[in-house]
C-alpha cells in the first residue's frame, strides 16, 4: 500500500464523521493535501475541526516516516477534475480541458460538461459535442465566470433608456 492509500484509509472515516466527502487526497513533495466537499460547500469551522482531527490521527498512527505539511481545504471555485465522480458532479458546468498529445482535435478547449459516466465525459463546445475517455484527458478544471450580478429587481437599464435620460437632461 503506497503512502496516499495509507492516508486515504486513515482519514476517510474521520472525513465521513464530519459529514463531508473526500474529494481528493494527494501527496506532493512534502505536503499532504486533503480536499473535502459537500453539497452547499464546506465552512471554515468544519475545515478547522477536520484538520485537528486528521492531525491527531496522523500523530497516533504515524503512517509514513518523515515530516510533511498537512493541508485540508475545499476544492474551491475552480476545482480540478480527476475522477468520474468529479466529472459527474460537474455536469452542466463550464470546464477547461487539456487533452493528451496523441488525441485528435484541439488539445485545449473550454466547454460545458454535458454528461459523464464511468468511462468518459461528453463536452459541448460551440454547439458541437465531443466525447473523451478519461485516459485522453491530461488536465481538467471547472471555470468560474466572474461578473456582477444584478440585485433582485434592479436590472441594468438598457442603452435606449440611458440615451433617453441623457436627452431629457439637455
In a nutshell, what does this entry contain?
The chain is an alpha+beta fold and 170 residues long. It contains 4 helices and 8 strands, in the order H-E-E-H-E-H-E-E-E-E-E-H.
Describe this structure in words.
- The protein has 170 residues and is of the alpha+beta class.
- The chain has 2 domains: 71 residues, RimP-like superfamily, N-terminal (GMP Synthetase, Chain A, domain 3); 59 residues, Ribosome maturation factor RimP, C-terminal domain (SH3 type barrels).
- It is 29% helix and 31% strand.
- The chain has 4 helices and 8 strands.
- The chain has a 5-stranded antiparallel sheet with strand order 7-6-5-4-8. Strands 1-2-3 form a 3-stranded mixed sheet, covered by helices on one side.
- Strand 6 and strand 7 form a beta hairpin.
- Helix 1 packs across helix 2.
- It is globular, with a radius of gyration of 22 Å.
- The N and C termini lie far apart (78 Å).
- Fraction in helix: 25-40%
Strand content: 25-35%
Class by SSE composition: alpha+beta
**CATH fold-level assignment of the largest domain:** GMP Synthetase, Chain A, domain 3
**Parts with pLDDT < 50 across at least 5 consecutive residues:** none
CATH H-level homologous superfamily name of the largest domain: RimP-like superfamily, N-terminal
* CATH architectural group of the largest domain: 2-Layer Sandwich
The largest β sheet comes out as:
5 strands, antiparallel
> Would you count the extended β strands for me?
8
Mean pLDDT: 88
The CATH top-level class label of the largest domain: Alpha Beta
Number of domains: 2
Gross morphology = globular
What is the C-alpha radius of gyration, as a whole number of Å?
22 Å
Order of strands side by side in the largest beta sheet?
7-6-5-4-8
Ends apart, CA distance between termini = 78 Å
Helices and strands, in N-to-C order?
HEEHEHEEEEEH
Number of helices: 4
